[in-house]
Amino acid sequence: MDLDVKTLDGGSAGSVSVSDGIFGLEPRGDLIQRVVRWQLAKRQAGTHKTKGRSEIARTTAKMYRQKGTGGARHGSKRVGIFRGGGKAHGPVARSHAFDLPKKVRALGLKHALSAKAQSQQIMVLDAATAAEPKTKALKSQLDGLGLSNALIIDGAQVDDNFGKAARNIPNLDVLPVQGINVYDILRRDVLVLTKAAVDALEERLK
Q1: What is the signed CA dihedral for 144, 147, 151, 156, rounded to 10 degrees?
Q2: What DSSP string runs through 149-200?
Q3: % helix / strand / coil in the chain, to the nearest 5?
Q4: Tens digit of each residue's pLDDT (9 = 90 or more) over 107-154
Q5: d(CA 125, CA 122)
Q6: Would you identify the CATH topology of the domain 2-43+98-205?
Q7: Angstrom distance (rounded) from CA 45 to CA 42
Q8: Is 106 helix (H, G, I), strand (E, B) or coil?
Q9: Rounded to two decimals, what is the model's pTM?
Q10: Residue-range domain boundaries for the chain
């Protein structure tokens, strides 16, 4: 499969040949969904916590005598039915992460890339560099390319000026190729890869 290569100014910079085994698969929604669920579960904080009855600081003395009051029998004010009492079966701090095989993760990434290629929502840039860290100038260039909601993947390192200029533009994410992931690919309309990113992905996923 061949993809056209553009410059930031909108000009043509030839084409690049990409592997059909990475960008030409028939997308499988079930694989992509598994990887997205794994990602979101892994990043969930899991710090939700309520106190149980054993953690409530209240007297252990019996509240009132067992018989003759006309009320229900109680021995503790720490139970959940009283105001200020402990929560029964409440949430506790825990990890929501679960294991997903590396091969499934890699396959999910391939299918996400193929889905973008199939829907023609993928673009290849010659390079993602900027002479100055100027947001206005970069926004003008991206508008010229029709990029208002995009994920830009650069090579091993993002150009410093380009990263600074892009970070104040809404709906635009810039990541090095090591940070590419299925969730970020899907949450943006267009996936933009530099030639360096394409080479790195071909090497990583071959």
Answers
A1: -10
A2: SEEEE-SSS--HHHHHHHTTSTTEEEE-GGG--HHHHHHSSEEEEEHHHHHH
A3: 35, 15, 50
A4: 999 999 999 999 999 999 999 999 999 999 999 999 999 999 999 999
A5: 10
A6: Ribosomal Protein L4; Chain: A; (3.40.1370)
A7: 8
A8: helix
A9: 0.83
A10: 2-43+98-205, 50-90
The owner of tokens 């360096």 is 196
Task: Please list, in sequence order, all residues whose beta carbon lies within 8 angstroms of the beta carbon of residue 135, skipping any fewer than 6 positions away.
Answer: 165, 166, 168, 169
Pairing of strands 172-175, 12-17: unpaired
How many whole angstroms from its chain centre is CA 57? 41
Per-residue pLDDT tens for 17-66?
Answer: 999 999 999 999 999 999 999 999 999 999 999 999 999 999 889 999 99
Q: Name the residue type at position 39.
A: Q
Cβ(131)–Cβ(9) under 8 Å? no
- Quick one: tokens of 25? 């698969």
